[in-house]
């Protein structure tokens, strides 16, 4: 083994505090091939120093003692790769962020500590070995779930980019909720006029396979390759018969004796049991509603079958299972409106002329039909925030669209019937979008009256059956009690109930509002926590059509970007099983939150494409057969041994296992700010707190640690949200052993950080150090007792 | 007639006092008016329940001179409807306590006439003593 050690001065950032010549002297005495000091290791010249030595001296392990690995680990790995050395036989000793900067005022301590930090890297790198990047091939296939405007837009964008799209819609036609709208705010474009061309494009696009009446029933697979099972409900019209054969002569519809509320008109009118969902339905095909058709209920009718001139009706059709594989998934499952019956004081169930916003859309759309579908009178009230911003029914959030849709419906009604007297009872008007405030002002100009007060209740006047509404006008502090002909409940948005299965099957997460959680609210707004699954539209949260279309385009772009690589690389920091040791006890199977461990011929096996490399499985193996590349048991034991090797008598040392994503970076940030903290803290980088097995904790005490800390990422937003629980479990079992061995005090602690908690970190470090100083010193007696117990 | 309100330490202290006494986070009040709209006795009040919340929030101590807190029947209609899960009746109770703790009785036992005493149901008297006396 030939180790090369490179000490970086960092233009003085390190060398003005740490006496690097001293450090070099220490390293010279170790079993290394060469030690070099350079002013800037990250510079071209610095890198050349390493690559030349690799070529000349045949170095096979490299230690760079410089800044945090989060700055230049990649740089040095790339340099090594160029010089023909595997990039993973590198260790970075973080002299700048973890030593010279926090200990800026204590150069002697810093110099001493630098020796330990470099020592750790040397001892660990000795155990490092070559790792190969794993890559998985991707094809060109995308599944879009949900055929509302989000799914339509995403599908079209993807199809245009040459992706093979399967669009699944559970209803008989695509179009979603937008197809139910009369016009759209604030421009008052007719919804059907701007939506139907897009729907037709979906049907006609050669790269889109449209499956309506279809739901996803099962998924499996991982990351960027998903196996999908879906089921299509039968339409009971013979397959492969399109409009060329079914003449749409409407004869079937005429003879059908069934009349049920038409869900495509929000039940304000009726349809038959054989029907075409909507005038602009895509696909434009007849289907039979088997929940209401008499042939299915009691076999008493087959009039449509008899009259059909083309004989395309087939009552015997069965649901069809479909299997296919895709590389990426876009979830656009949309919303449901909040059930107005959750607010019984508004009387939706009791009074006929209390309607929802979507019902009002259909009423307005048919306003000028003769006779109109419903007599709505002249005096109309809109009740805002029905189900939104209402913690009584568990909804803290604002639905974002109701202010504007009420304004739109009121404006449309007022334009059509200027004699109408319209009131909108609101809590706050949120007219935040482009053109919204102007639209709100135009409605006010038209004479629509906005009253600031949430309606308390709706009752009926027993004398004339008129609706009576009670509210406070919070601006004049008067109580309004007044009769209305029609009351429109501006009910809010909630996650579509069908999204529950999708969330479950793809292991997505929900935000506190119940909508699908994005990977990051700012930087990854259309990614989910599952690689290869993207979201758009109201599935992610309430939003209007423009925002939905923007997100759909963004999700499509993310898919296109992901698939453009052709294959995906994963970091080789993955779990692996030592097959010679594994005895097939299966204890590890339940330890993996990602289900990445399976049994194969009596031995555990890691499904690498699923493994995130957090290391939570390691503690579950009683015989250390499961291990983690980059942080193997032997590497970690070497690390803690090296960290405590030079500990002097009467010196305290506290090992902080810092998770790479937050605690380690936090310590970097503390260093960057030159914030001093107890120098007794030695930081060891780990992928997550759950990697720290009970055995490793015990070994750390045996090696001489006075206290051991685990710093984890705060579960919210962590890639390893389960780490905390596993860490705490491990700490519990080890603490029992420590107590038995006679260790006093609270020497084993768990902390949760995010990378912004600088002050908390410093306070934590200082207080732990103070606490430990007060404790009775650990003697050899306790350590040897602990050793015996292991 | 509008009066000028100074937002100073006194107003902050008043809000804090009522917040502590009631256990309600009064600053959460969104002024939606649901409480007032549903209040069965609001027509007899001089300020609406939501106005009471508002006055406490801005620390306007003239709220102590209003009738509303004494008229609140603690029927809790507002409590079960408040979209912010606030208990307005507890705030009214806190305001009553502040007055009653100064040994001010809103009902004087010896001033109740014998006629009234014979007609009033016992429970009304018990409630009045609990709610309206120190």
Largest sheet of chain B: none
Whole-number mean pLDDT of chain B: 92
Query: Which spans of chain B have pLDDT < 50 for at least 5 consecutive residues?
Result: none
Q: Major β-sheet of chain A, in short?
A: 5 strands, parallel
Question: Hey, which two chains have the biggest interface?
Answer: A-B, 22 and 22 residues
Rounded average pLDDT of chain A: 94
Could you characterize the architecture of this molecule?
The complex is a heterodimer of chains A (790) and B (134). Chain A has 790 residues and is an alpha/beta fold. Chain A has 6 domains: 1-133, Rossmann fold, CATH 3.40.50; 141-233 and 322-334 and 496-564, FAD/NAD(P)-binding domain (3-Layer(bba) Sandwich); 251-317, no CATH class; 338-494, FAD/NAD(P)-binding domain (3-Layer(bba) Sandwich), CATH 3.50.50.60; 571-606, no CATH class; 631-790, Rossmann fold (3-Layer(aba) Sandwich). Chain A is 31% helix and 23% strand. Chain A is built from 21 helices and 38 strands. In chain A, the strands form 13 sheets. Chain A has a 5-stranded parallel beta sheet with strand order 10-7-6-18-29. A 5-stranded parallel beta sheet of chain A has the order 20-27-21-22-23. A 4-stranded parallel beta sheet of chain A has the order 2-1-3-4, sandwiched between helices. In chain A, helix 18 (694-702) packs antiparallel against helix 21 (780-789). Chain A is elongated. The two termini of chain A are 31 Å apart. In chain A, 48% of the residues are buried. Chain B has 134 residues and is mainly alpha-helical. Chain B has 2 domains: 9-102, Fumarate Reductase Iron-sulfur Protein, Chain B, domain 2; 105-134, no CATH class. Chain B is 50% helix and 0% strand. Chain B contains 8 helices and no strands. In chain B, helix 1 (9-22) crosses helix 6. The relative contact order of chain B is 0.15. The model of chain B has no long low-confidence stretch (mean pLDDT 92). At the A-B interface, strand 24 and strand 25 of A face helix 2 of B.
């Amino acid at each position: 083994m030939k180790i090369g050690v490179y000490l970086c001065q960092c233009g003085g950032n390190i060398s003005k505090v740490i006496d690097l010549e001293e450090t070099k002297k220490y390293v010279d005495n170790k079993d290394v091939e060469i030690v070099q000091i350079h002013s800037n290791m990250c510079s071209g010249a610095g890198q050349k120093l390493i690559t030349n030595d690799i070529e000349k001296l045949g170095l096979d392990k490299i230690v760079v003692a410089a800044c945090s690995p989060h700055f230049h680990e990649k740089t040095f790995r790339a340099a090594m790769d160029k010089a023909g050395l595997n990039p993973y036989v590198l260790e970075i000793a973080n002299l700048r962020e973890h030593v010279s900067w926090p200990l800026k005022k204590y150069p002697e301590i810093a110099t001493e500590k630098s020796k330990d930090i470099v020592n750790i890297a040397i001892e660990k790198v000795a155990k490092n070995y070559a790792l190969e990047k794993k890559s998985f091939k991707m094809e060109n296939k995308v599944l879009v779930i949900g055929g509302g405007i989000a799914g339509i837009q995403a599908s079209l964008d993807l199809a245009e980019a040459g992706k093979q799209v399967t669009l699944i819609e559970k209803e008989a036609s695509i179009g979603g909720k937008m197809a139910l709208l009369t016009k759209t705010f604030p421009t008052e474009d007719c919804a059907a006029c701007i939506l139907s061309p897009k729907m037709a494009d979906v049907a006609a696009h050669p790269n889109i396979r449209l499956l309506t009446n279809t739901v996803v029933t099962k998924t499996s697979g991982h990351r960027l390759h998903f196996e999908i099972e879906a089921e299509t409900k039968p339409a009971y019209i013979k397959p492969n018969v399109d409009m060329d054969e079914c003449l749409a002569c409407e004869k079937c519809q005429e003879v059908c004796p069934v009349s049920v509320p038409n869900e495509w008109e929000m039940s304000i009118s009726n349809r038959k049991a054989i029907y075409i969902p909507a005038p602009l339905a895509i696909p434009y095909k007849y289907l039979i509603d088997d929940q209401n058709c008499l042939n299915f209920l009691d076999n008493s009718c087959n009039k449509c079958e008899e009259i059909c001139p083309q004989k395309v009706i087939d009552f015997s059709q069965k649901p069809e299972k479909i299997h296919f594989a895709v590389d990426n998934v876009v979830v656009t499952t949309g919303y449901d409106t909040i059930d107005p019956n959750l607010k019984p004081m508004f009387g939706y169930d009791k009074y006929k002329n209390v309607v929802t916003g979507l019902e009002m859309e259909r009423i307005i759309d048919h306003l000028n039909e003769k006779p109109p579908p419903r007599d709505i009178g002249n005096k109309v009230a809109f009740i805002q925030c029905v189900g939104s911003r209402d913690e009584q029914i568990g909804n803290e959030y604002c639905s974002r669209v109701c202010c504007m849709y009420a304004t739109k419906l009121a404006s449309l009604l007022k334009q059509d019937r200027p004699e109408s007297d319209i009131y909108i009872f609101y809590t706050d008007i949120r007219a935040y979008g482009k053109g919204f405030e102007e639209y709100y002002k135009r409605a006010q100009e038209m004479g629509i009256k906005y009253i600031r007060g949430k309606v308390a209740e709706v009752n009926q006047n027993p004398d004339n059956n008129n609706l009576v509404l009670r509210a406070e006008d919070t601006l004049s502090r008067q109580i309004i009690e007044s009769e209305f002909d029609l009351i429109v409940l501006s009910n809010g948005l909630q996650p579509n109930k069908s999204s529950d299965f999708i969330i479950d099957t793809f292991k997505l997460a929900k935000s506190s509002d119940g909508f699908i959680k994005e990977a990051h609210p700012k930087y990854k707004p259309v990614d989910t926590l599952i690689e290869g699954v993207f979201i758009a539209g109201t599935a992610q949260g309430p939003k209007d059509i423009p925002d939905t279309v923007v997100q759909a385009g963004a999700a499509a772009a993310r898919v296109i970007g992901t698939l453009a690589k052709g294959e995906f690389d994963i970091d080789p920091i993955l779990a692996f099983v030592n097959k010679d040791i594994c005895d097939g006890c299966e204890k590890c199977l339940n330890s993996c939150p990602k289900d990445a461990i399976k049994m194969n011929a009596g031995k555990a096996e890691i499904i690498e494409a699923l493994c995130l490399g957090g290391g939570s499985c390691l503690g579950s193996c009683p015989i250390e057969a499961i291990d983690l590349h980059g942080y193997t048991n032997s590497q970690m034991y070497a690390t803690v041994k090296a960290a405590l090797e030079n500990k002097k008598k009467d010196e305290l040392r506290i090992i902080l296992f810092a998770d790479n994503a937050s605690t380690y970076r936090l310590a970097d940030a503390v260093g960057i700010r030159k914030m001093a903290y107890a120098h007794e803290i030695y930081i060891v980088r780990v992928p997550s707190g759950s990697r720290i097995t009970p055995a490793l904790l015990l070994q750390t005490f045996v090696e001489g640690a006075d206290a051991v800390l685990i710093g984890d990422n705060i579960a919210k937003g962590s890639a390893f949200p389960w780490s905390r629980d596993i860490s705490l479990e491990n700490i519990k079992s080890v603490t029992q052993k420590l107590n038995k061995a006679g260790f006093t005090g609270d020497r084993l602690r768990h902390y949760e950080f995010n990378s912004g908690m600088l002050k908390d970190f410093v306070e934590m470090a200082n207080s732990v150090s103070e606490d430990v100083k007060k404790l009775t010193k650990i003697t050899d007696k306790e350590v040897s007792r602990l050793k015996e117990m292991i | 007639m509008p009066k000028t309100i100074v937002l100073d330490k006194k107003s902050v202290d008043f809000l804090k006092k009522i917040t502590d006494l009631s256990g309600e986070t009064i600053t959460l009040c969104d002024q939606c008016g649901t409480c007032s709209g549903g209040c069965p006795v609001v027509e007899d009040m001089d300020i609406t329940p939501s106005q009471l919340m508002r006055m406490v929030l801005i620390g306007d101590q003239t709220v102590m001179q209003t009738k509303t807190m004494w008229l609140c029947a603690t029927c809790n209609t507002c409590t079960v409807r408040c979209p912010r899960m606030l208990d307005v009746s507890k705030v009214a109770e806190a305001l009553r306590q502040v007055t009653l703790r100064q040994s001010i009785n809103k009902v004087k036992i010896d001033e109740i006439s014998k006629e009234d005493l014979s007609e009033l149901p016992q429970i009304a008297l018990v409630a009045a003593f609990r709610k309206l006396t120190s």
